[in-house]
Amino acid sequence: MIEISSTPLVIIAILGVAGVVLPVINVIRKEKGSNSFYAVIAFAALIASIGYVGYQFINENVQPSALFSEDVIIDDAFGGFFAIAMLIVAIFTTVGSFNYMRKQNYPAIYYSLILLSTIGMVLVAYSTDLIMLFVAWELMSIPTYALVGFMKKNPQSNEAALKYFLFGALSSAIIVYGISITYGITGSTNIGEVIQGYSNLDPGLLPLALLSVGMFIAGFGFKMGLVPFHQWLPDTYEGAPPTITTLLAAGTKKAGFAATIRIVVLGMVVLNLDWTLALGILAIMTMTIGNVAAIMQKNLTRMLAYSSIAHAGYILIGLAVSPYSSLGLQGSLYQILNHAVMKGMAFIAVTGIVTTLAVTNLDKLKGLGRRMPITALGLTISLLALAGVPPLAGFWSKIMLFGGALEAGSVVWWATWLAIAGVLNSALSLAYYGWIIRKMYFEGETEKRVSEPKSIIAVIVFSIIFLVGFGVYPDPIIKFVEFATPVVSTGFMP
Amino acid sequence: MENTLTEFVLVSVALLGIGIYGLAVKRNFIRMLFAIEIIINAANLNMVAFGRFIPDSAGQTLALFSIAIAAAEVAVGLSLIIVAYRMYHNIDIADFRSLKG
């Protein structure tokens, strides 16, 4: 039985009410402007939600990562962890839009769609039933299709939305087909019973089970941006409004990982297949192709999009080694939280550059360190954290990931190669991150300083405090990650 | 005449194949949307058939949810197509090439 005060229900209530009320207020007030009024309502609803998640953790009302439940949702630490990461991203998006949406039409609908999509993301992390998971997945996806194409007069935004919609609809069709096969061979949609059904499977049905899990990987992989399901991602990130790119890169991508950990990893453990090697190969392909393609880009948004593909590869290392090393999965969760803040800040900095200077081409960024010093500092710190430079927070999550891979190397031979590939890729990524930083600070003539939007400065200051603070003193977050990580092992049964 | 589960699953797999073929071959946006709809309906057929033979009501529930959600998705997709048509007077996916790198 789900209590009425459990975290997911309260988040649905707060964000749902705010998301539905915003367009109604817009109709009653009969006006198009006053963007900041709607932004403040959305911001207050998101702050209230993240406050409630924190309150539940402090009062210890949260179950430790119990991955199964009789109900369709469960209020556990794993879901709470993802909820915090996603709500931080939604807050970044809302605050970053304060300035960006000032010149655009229909702000009420824009913020309402962001809130509805956030409910979907949070529910994906909390759901323990395939029906619930699918509904939450679509609640997350459908508003983002409209948001990517929100700039109706802009051909790029429209093209990005069409490509995103096509791949998104295909991914949900594949997921729903996978769910139908899973239901057919296990006779249930509850994830706990599905995993149990997989473990007592008739050997003749094994190919079907493999097909269903493969469909889950493909369907979730589209959203996560794994190679070879990544073709839509750079186009969509480039064409979408930059604030929505923040939501996609840092938010919906993480929902894919939450769903993958809940179904695929555990399902594969009990199916007892040689699946970890497949995930490991996907991880190596994803990070290498992402980083190599990023080097060749001339556009800042596109470069960050490819770097986001590469980061999906790093996170996948932890999933691949999860049956052999608990440290790997902890590293994955830590990297997910860090990536939400790092990538969120990087794209919000891009939003600031787009709103004030209207450029994203790398050659036009010369001298940005003098024109927009705070934005350039934020971008620099987030890029260094993405590359994993100590003492920023990104360093510790990469250490945990690669340490987990090395630990698993004593059980399976290829895990050591994952760690080596990860370190080499980090070095490779530092090359193009360093190139951006050099352009910003060491090139260009002396330009005059332009005024920077205050909302974007607020996001950047928060993120710098987060990344530097938890980089110097990571203990509290590591303890939190250990509490939130589910235990997955080869002898595991629900 | 009794139908067996295998027949339903074979029809569903055939529909899945038609959908994938349509996505691979067609370049018109609406045709690709049809292909995706065919895949979703193949999954719905699967669920209802499994629900009939297990027997269990969850399959029908899942199919109803899936139909409703697919309708919402198609509504958003068609509105995006209308906006694109007003801008380009064309909905051929090969003509959308402003984003490259």
Sum this structure up briefly.
The complex is a heterodimer of chains A (494) and B (101). Chain A is mainly α and 494 residues long.
The proportion of strand residues of chain A reads under 5%
Count of runs of 4 or more consecutive helical residues of chain B: 3
Unreliably modeled segments of chain B: none
What is the CA-CA span between the terminal residues of chain A? 19 Å
Query: Which bin fits the share of residues in helices of chain A?
Result: over 70%
What is the string of helix and strand elements of chain B? Answer: HHH
Mean pLDDT of chain B: 89
Helix/strand structural class of chain B: mainly alpha
What percent of the residues of chain B sit in helical stretches (DSSP H or I)? over 70%
Tell me the number of strands of chain A.
Answer: 0
Our count of domains of chain B comes out at 1
Distance between the termini of chain B: 58 Å
Largest sheet of chain A: none
Radius of gyration of chain A: 21 Å
Q: What kind of sheet is the major sheet of chain B?
A: none
Structure report:
The complex is a heterodimer of chains A (494) and B (101). By secondary structure, chain A is mainly α. Chain A has a domain at 275-494. In chain A, 76% of the residues lie in helices and 0% in strands. In chain A, helix 3 runs parallel beside helix 13. Chain A starts with 6 loop residues before the first helix and ends in a 10-residue tail after the last helix. With 101 residues, chain B is mostly helical. Chain B has a single domain, classed as Helix Hairpins, CATH 1.10.287. Chain B has helices spanning 5-25, 29-53, 58-88. The radius of gyration of chain B is 17 Å and the shape is elongated. In chain B, 34% of the residues are buried. The A-B interface holds A 130-131, 134-135, 138, 141-142, 145-146, 149, 152, 155-156, 158-163, 165-166, 169-170, 172-174, 176-177, 179-181, 183-184, 187-189, 234-235, 238-239, 296-299, 302 and B 9, 12, 16, 19, 23, 29, 32-33, 36, 39-40, 42-44, 46-47, 50-51, 54, 56, 58-59, 61-62, 65-66, 69, 72-73, 76-77, 79-81, 83-84, 87-88, 93, 96, 98-101.
